[in-house]
Amino acid sequence: MDGLGRDGLKGELRLLRDETARSGWEATRQAVELAYGSAGRADRASVAVGAARIASGAEAIAYDEPVDLSGYDAVLLGKGAQGMGCLEQGDATALRALMRSMYSSADAIDSSLGSATAGQAAAVARTIRHEMQARKRRRQERLARKARFPQVKSFGGYDFAQAALPEGCSVDGLRSLAFVDAAQDFVFHGQTGRGKTHLAIAVGLACVNAGLEARFFTAAELALSLTRANRGHRLEQLMKGIAKSQLLIIDELGHVPLDQDGARLLFQVASDCYEKRSLVITTNIEFSKWGVVFGGDKLASAIIDRVMHHGRLIELNGTSKRMDRALMLGKKDG
Q: What pTM does this model have?
């Protein structure tokens, strides 16, 4: 069975079922099933073929008429004289539909495996693995677009030599994303060019590659978006969108002054993260001066209190990495 045991195949079938249950295909299949049910003939094969016809743009289906499944049965049971390469387009569409429907109760899986040859089981296993890999890749691409990282940066290209990690925090621990699972926070503090944004993006990209949702904003960009959304009566919608993420990155806090409304709304977003999702803040100003950013010590103290409770501070020292490679200073770029 292509190196996959029966229990392993069962597990992959269940994974595909769970993924399919959240897709648009499942909604189509359920609608067809209801239609067939109202006509008194909701057998599984007819439902799958009917849904496939709709998905492929076929004409309206007569739900009270029988569906000829002999061609599909021959292919599925390995008894047909034709191979997959000889299938007509409609047959191929129906076969794909039957594979995607995957009614994977334990009884159904046992029955299928009981009558399947080793070659058939191996082919199903390969199909499921390919499908799951494709879905994982598409999800990562979708999450990366939604995160809106300004550049692609990874841990692989980061030099931790000048990073002062606090007690109990290690590079491996940061890479593991355990802090994201625990809804803990980080503040990356250092002067311009020390790698704060690079490290924040590397953390965010690691989340995306792990299938977790991350969002990236500069502090000024987020404050402006929140202010505009508030004026346009869309603040709740924006806040709900941000709240879906497991990691929120606020970059360059303190680089640009914020107006009173922007500072208040930014505090609201950061406060909402407390014990719900991880927050990573990059800044070049120390905690004692955060009152300047938030328009007063009261808001600043409130957010610092929350960040410090479940958070850690990483100090990024050394010289500016950009100045070390500045062409204007005769350095080698790259």
A: 0.67
